[in-house]
Amino acid sequence: MAKKKGKAITLRLDGLLEERVSAVARKRGVTRSQVVRDALEKELGREKQGKELSAYDRLKPWIGCIDSSNMPGAPFTSDNASEQARELIVQKWEKRGVKRTR
């Protein structure tokens, strides 16, 4: 299915930006116009019906991409989070001199 032709616009780019657009076009195997259209879609897609995107929508591509369970200094893992939280509370009580009832 052929794409409809859109309206043409004239755009002036400085030399460095034009080189970057050309390099991306060569790398992706598309026209410079397609690179500019994609960049505009991406930028304009950041707004939903005139409203700014939520923090979730801005961070959505990165959510879940890092596994922090084995990171040093990570205070909790999902396997034993309640036990670790309990231990931290007990340590805090002990520092304050609070007696444990159980």
Give short descriptive properties of this protein.
single chain, 102 residues, mainly alpha, 2 strands, 47% helix, 4% strand
Secondary structure elements and pairings:
Elements: H1 15-28, H2 32-44, E1 47-48, E2 51-52, H3 55-59, H4 81-96
Antiparallel strand pairs: 1-2
Helix pairs in contact: 1-2
How does this structure look, described?
With 102 residues, this protein is mainly α. The chain has a domain at 15-62 and 77-96. Helices cover 47% and strands 4% of the residues. The chain is built from four helices and two strands, in the order H-H-E-E-H-H. Strands 1-2 form a two-stranded antiparallel ribbon. The radius of gyration is 26 Å and the shape is rod-shaped.
Mean pLDDT: 79
Distance between the termini: 72 Å
Instruction: Report the count of strand segments.
Output: 2
Strand content: under 5%
Radius of gyration: 26 Å
**Low-pLDDT segments:** none
Question: What spatial form do the alpha-carbon principal axes imply?
Answer: rod-shaped
Number of helices: 4
Q: Please estimate the helix content.
A: 40-55%
- SSE order in H/E notation? HHEEHH
Brief write-up:
This protein has 102 residues and is mostly helical.
